[in-house]
Amino acid sequence: MVEACLESISKNEDKINSMITVTAEDALRQADEADKAMEEGRWLGLLH
């Protein structure tokens, strides 16, 4: 999901100019951490 969002930002940001900073590496790292937590059975809330 994060990769799809980053791809959408990449394709459209020059048209909509809505982002100040995009930290793709941080987003991907956090997504990996969340995936690991879920695999370990840790509940991260409804938005994860």
Describe this structure in words.
The protein has helices at residues 2-16, 24-39. By secondary structure, the protein is mainly alpha-helical. It has one domain (1-6, 20-48). The longest helix has 16 residues, at 24-39.
Secondary structure layout plus pairing:
Layout: H1 2-16, H2 24-39
Concise structural overview:
This protein has helices spanning 2-16, 24-39. By secondary structure, it is an all-alpha fold.
Strand content: under 5%
Main β-sheet, in a few words? none
Given as residue ranges, the uncertain stretches (5+ residues, pLDDT < 50) are: none
The total strand number stands at 0
Query: What's the average pLDDT?
Result: 95
Shape: elongated
* Whole-number tally of structural domains: 1
- Computed structural class: mainly alpha
Individual helix count: 2
Q: Radius of gyration over alpha carbons? A: 13 Å
Secondary-structure element order, as H and E?
Answer: HH
Helix content: 55-70%
- Ends apart, CA distance between termini: 10 Å
Using brief descriptors, characterize the structure shown:
mainly alpha, 48 residues, 2 helices, elongated, single chain
